[in-house]
């Protein structure tokens, strides 16, 4: 709920956000997707403080997804599915669709060049790049959590579907593919951009995550 909390991680037209945590249950998070793109045409205002809050919450979630790092190396520890990821990507998470859409749109909508002014990244801090990096890591972790292939039919029926894989595989509109393709092209070309002025263009530092996510996208949406 905190990832779609008005005045904390999303912008609302109302004068003030909810007074109690229980009030967040009544919010339709599909109206507060973080960035325009796939399945969402409205472009919300960019608030750096909200980017920072998104980043910190996603880092906390990513830590919970990484429980295998903190477990003893044993067969039971490695074979058991991560319950955090299972719930996060299942229908038990009512924010699954807006979360997936927000993460995907934040990544594919990111433009590290900004307005194209040389050395602008030295004059202004970029709150969006850390968010894009952790969003990529969340997407890769959740899309890599496909345990149904290793289960029997009886076991598979007891495991909820990974909605992130389902949503990714169902992207089919031409305008959505164009948006995603432009995003991948822009970010993958970033290291190759050369200018007459040394270090005048901002370079991103999540190329490995971007390549893995590109592979996952191509694999699940054939």
Automatic annotation (TrEMBL):
One Pfam family from the record: Hid1
One Gene Ontology CC term in the entry: Golgi medial cisterna
Residues of the signal peptide: none
Entry-linked PANTHER family: PROTEIN HID1
Name assigned to this protein: HID1-like 2
